[in-house]
Design goal:
The structure is a single chain. The chain has 257 residues and is of the alpha/beta class. It has one domain: Rossmann fold (3-Layer(aba) Sandwich), CATH 3.40.50. Helices cover 33% and strands 16% of the residues. The chain contains 9 helices and 8 strands. It has helices at residues 5-14, 31-34, 69-80, 87-99, 121-127, 132-145, 168-175, 204-215, 247-251; strands spanning 42-43, 61-66, 112-116, 150-152, 156-158, 179-181, 192-200, 219-228. Strands 1-2-8-7-3-4 form a 6-stranded mixed beta sheet, with helices on both faces. The chain has a two-stranded antiparallel ribbon with strand order 5-6. Strand 7 (192-200), helix 8 (204-215) and strand 8 form a beta-alpha-beta unit. The longest helix is centred in the middle third of the chain and has 14 residues, at 132-145. The protein is globular.
């Protein structure tokens, strides 16, 4: 991702660029597709059935976009279509969101840890690293700039297969016991932790991270995701008056390949 602006411009002369969200020519991510990610962060934990199974409490999860339509296309392009040029854009919106948190995401005082949800070794090889690491770093920067000192801490590892394509029950089974803290976890003892992931769907990933972190003595205080998946039939937050606002309008829509 160490491409200088002139290098980017030069690449654009040779390779056609299209918006990751809508396919618009000559732009990596257009303003309309970016707009849902520029929303005020909002809570979304009630969308995830998995987050209330551990001790009865719901973990606060802040998010930006509904993971439908162009927002979903953007995340899929980033993760599964090798659009790694989006990393800096998505990290940018995460940094701004954390900067707007106003001290509500992590407690003041002792610097909080921002822990990225881990990806499998196979996914890291395919993508050249864990893409979510960049989001966690950006969130830590945003929190710090907003007066809540934080640093990113990629302390989790994950075994097993990818979650993509699995249903809710299979996701939970796939993850059980497969997220672990690297090393002895001594640095986590008593620390407030914010977990960061790309999308909240069932909550299984964040729940598995929470179990592993709390087993090492950390106190998971919340999570942040770029987007969250509305339940089927739910009314998605309108991003633009020109686009359908009900989630199923997007579910049944064409998927660009
Ligand atoms: Zn677009």
């Amino acid at each position: 991702m160490d491409v200088r602006p002139w290098g980017h411009a030069l690449a654009g002369l040779v390779l056609p660029v299209q918006c990751a969200g809508c396919g618009l020519d000559d732009v990596a991510w257009c303003a309309a597709c970016r707009r849902p990610f520029e929303a005020q962060p909002r809570r979304c934990e009630e969308r995830a059935g998995r987050l209330d199974l551990l001790d009865g409490s719901l973990l606060p999860v802040w998010t930006l976009a509904d993971c439908v339509g162009p927002a979903r296309e953007t995340v899929v392009a980033w993760k599964d279509r090798a659009r790694y040029d989006l990393t800096m854009h998505l990290a940018g919106v995460a940094r701004v969101a954390a900067g707007r948190s106003g001290g509500t995401w992590v407690p003041a005082g002792v610097p909080a840890l921002v822990v990225p949800a881990p990806s499998t070794a196979a996914a890291r090889r395919r993508r050249g690293g864990n893409l979510v690491d960049a989001l966690a770093q950006a969130v830590a920067e945003g929190l710090t700039a907003a007066g809540s000192p934080a640093r990113d801490a990629p302390v989790l590892a994950r075994r097993g297969a990818d979650q993509a394509g699995l249903g809710a029950r299979a996701r939970g089974t796939n993850l059980a016991g497969r997220v672990r803290v690297r090393g002895d976890g001594r640095d986590l003892q008593g620390r407030a932790v914010l977990v960061v992931d790309d999308v909240l769907t069932t909550g299984a990933t964040i729940a598995a991270c929470r179990v592993a972190l709390e087993a090492s003595g950390a106190r998971v205080v919340g999570a942040f995701t770029l987007a969250s998946t509305p339940p089927p039939g739910a009314t998605a937050r309108p991003a633009d008056p020109q686009v359908p606002t009900r989630a199923e309008d997007w579910w049944s829509g064409p998927v660009r390949g």
